[in-house]
Automatic annotation (TrEMBL):
It comes from Kribbella qitaiheensis. InterPro entries: DUF6891. Residues 7-179 form the DUF6891 domain. This is DUF6891 domain-containing protein.
């Protein structure tokens, strides 16, 4: 038996992992198994984890029935693909800035880097705002008035994704409705 607080936190984690749309079932299972072992050591992960995932998937399926044909994450994907076509390295749903830096350093003649982490997506799922980090090829943050920042902001606005640059990052307002297949 697990406590009410642990159960609520585990359901919340399952929810954001599933709704992120970036983690497959195996990755969600691994993350939840680790969380169950840490937060609810008396529970059996082999039983609890599939229940948590199935509950989150069912809730997502019910919600997605009313979504528009094109969602905000769909429009974001178009922006990110356009940036990639311009030579900008794009890293989606990475663990941290070290992962993003490695991708940037591995690229041949990158024009810059745009990335967001798993926790940025989880925040977007719950609060409707995704933080995008934008770096120059030398890993320096962009600054107001620089062409790379202006280009990223213009592409976001062209796709009806409200965005502002604040304290070294772009805050993009969106409703996180990403369709997933489980």
């Amino acid at each position: 038996m697990i406590g009410e607080r642990a159960a609520r936190e585990l359901r919340g984690l399952a929810r954001v992992l599933v709704r992120s749309g970036y983690a497959d079932r195996a990755a969600v299972t691994a993350a939840l198994t680790e969380a169950v072992r840490e937060d609810a050591p008396s529970a059996d992960p082999a039983t609890l984890v599939p229940e948590l995932i199935d509950e989150a998937v069912a809730a997502l399926a019910a919600d997605s029935a009313d979504w528009p044909d094109e969602t905000d994450p769909d429009r974001l994907d178009v922006v990110l693909a356009e940036l990639e076509s311009l030579g900008v390295v794009v890293v989606r749903y990475c663990t941290d800035h070290h992962d993003a830096r490695q991708a940037l350093e591995a690229a041949a003649e990158p024009k810059g880097l745009v990335f967001f982490t798993d926790t940025d997506v989880w925040h977007a799922v719950d609060f409707g705002m995704l933080e995008l980090k934008v770096w120059h090829p030398d890993t320096a943050n962009v600054a107001p008035g620089e062409p790379l920042l202006d280009d990223v902001l213009a592409l976001l606005h062209e796709r009806d994704l409200p965005a502002v640059f604040d304290e070294g990052r772009i805050e993009t307002t969106l409703t996180w409705q990403r369709r997933v297949g489980y």
